[in-house]
Amino acid sequence: MLKKSNPSVPWRVAAPSCVWPDTAAANCRLLSRSVDEVGLYLLELESCLAYGPDDLPKKDYGLRYHLHLPLDLPFAHGGDAAFFAMEPLLQKTARLRPWGMVLHPPATLAALEAFLAALADTGRDPATVLLENTEDASPADVLGMAAATGCSVCIDLGHMLAMGHALPTGDPELARRTRMLHVYSPFGAEGPPPGRSHVHRALGCLAPEGRDALVWMLGNLRPETVVVEVFAPAPFMESLHVLDAVATGRDAPHACPAEDS
After folding, report:
1. Which whole-number Å values give the CA distances from 188 to 163, 233, 237, in the listed order?
2. Are residues 150 and 179 in contact, defined by beta-carbon separation less than 8 angstroms?
């Protein structure tokens, strides 16, 4: 596994805190055997604000941490309101010393600027905010927003492939600002799921063009962390093997589990 100071790769391999259907605390304990870092996926604002003392890890388990901020932040009420609504989550997780926070960017640059101004007032650096490309924001979009505001970037391979977005490979800011990758296959062998843009399938499900994109990103970008964003134990572990093979230039397994992860 790509774990604990493998000299072949310059990044840390990370997992989301929801691979097993259990608490983030239980996931972190289990994942510490296989990865260097865990992303605390705080995806729903109200339910995560309600976390009790047993939901989040009480010790670090030898892991490094980052946050994935809620998907439902109230940006409609302004960027500052969105920040103040989620700020208690930063306090809940402070003992784990997360190094960064992934954010699905708001629709406007003004809302992002207001969010970052509120963040800066607490002494935090905008560079610790990693803007992720989404269904609504292409990699070029988030790179432009990051360059305008001093943020970093998280490139999500699955979103990019599902939406047919291209990487702005000619922009030198791409390598400079990309601190994280989210890697998974957005489709299984059967193609896009009915009524949904994509799912999070094992890396073995990637089509050839997806593998080519993954190889390019690993070879040309300088991420600090690569998150295997797969949300079920067996496909997650299989994906670690695929990532290991791709990163070290070996033939990667092509097994694609039949069920969505």
Report:
1. 15, 17, 17
2. no
Return the closest-CA partner of residue 68 out of 91, 92, 86, 42: 42
Residues 6 or more apart whose Cβ sits within 8 Å of residue 253? 204, 238, 241, 242, 245
Q: Cβ(211)–Cβ(257) under 8 Å?
A: no
Cα angle for residues 157, 136, 91 (degrees, 5° grid): 80
How far, in whole angstroms, is CA 183 from its chain's centroid? Answer: 8
Site of tokens 């990699």: 139
Tell me the whole-structure pTM to 2 decimals: 0.94
Distances (CA, A) of 240 to 35, 62, 75: 9, 19, 35
**CA atoms of 213 and 163, how far apart (whole Å):** 14
Residues 39-81 pLDDT 10s? 999 999 999 999 999 999 999 999 999 999 999 999 999 999 9
Domains of the chain from N-terminus onward: 12-247 (3.20.20.150)
Tell me the CA distances in angstroms from 70 to 42, 44, 50, 60, 251, one per residue in order.
5, 5, 13, 22, 36
169: DSSP letter? T
